[in-house]
Amino acid sequence: MIDIGLSKMALIGAVALIVIGPEKLPRVARTVGTLLGKAQRYVADVKSEVNRSMELDELKKMKETVEGAARDVEQTIHTSASDFEKDWHNATGDALDSSSGSYASSYESASGVVPAYAHPRKNWRLKRAAVPQWYKARAGVRSKAQSGAARVARFRPQKFR
């Protein structure tokens, strides 16, 4: 940056005192100080943004190399698994199912029918009723709905009933 020593600062201050005057000099000095501070903050923000963008580019390159390596590993695993599956079926004697293009399992070839998948549907009533009534009473869970008037009548003091 600009190399300003103590002698140059004194000369600038003396000229400013003569040109601006002693009444306006403090206000001008404050304004110049705030402008210099804003300029320094702006330069620091630009530097940090450039550093962030450089780091982001480096991270993108690193991400691409890691993704490429992961794809290579996945591809080698798939090829070795398919080779193993072919060797296994050749060794066990399972026949290739010509209609579906996959190996037929021993269960399918024995019975001829594969059972369909049935989703285990859960009954929400059973799940709700799994909490015991004594626990609900102790925890203060309301088991019956009451209207506002019934609730007021229930909790009204004894002398007004």
TrEMBL record:
Topological type in the membrane: Single-pass membrane protein
Concerning Gene3D superfamilies, the annotation shows:
1.20.5.3310
Q: Which InterPro entries does the protein's record reference?
A: TatA/B/E, TatB
**Alphabetical UniProt keywords:** Cell inner membrane, Cell membrane, Membrane, Protein transport, Translocation, Transmembrane, Transmembrane helix, Transport
The listed locations are: Cell membrane; Membrane
Q: Does the keyword Ribonucleoprotein apply?
A: no
Keyword Transmembrane helix annotated: yes
Q: What does this protein do?
A: Part of the twin-arginine translocation (Tat) system that transports large folded proteins containing a characteristic twin-arginine motif in their signal peptide across membranes. Together with TatC, TatB is part of a receptor directly interacting with Tat signal peptides. TatB may form an oligomeric binding site that transiently accommodates folded Tat precursor proteins before their translocation.
Listed under subunit, the entry gives:
The Tat system comprises two distinct complexes: a TatABC complex, containing multiple copies of TatA, TatB and TatC subunits, and a separate TatA complex, containing only TatA subunits. Substrates initially bind to the TatABC complex, which probably triggers association of the separate TatA complex to form the active translocon.
Sequence similarity: Belongs to the TatB family.
Checking HAMAP family in the record gives: TatB
What is the protein name given in its UniProt record? Answer: Sec-independent protein translocase protein TatB
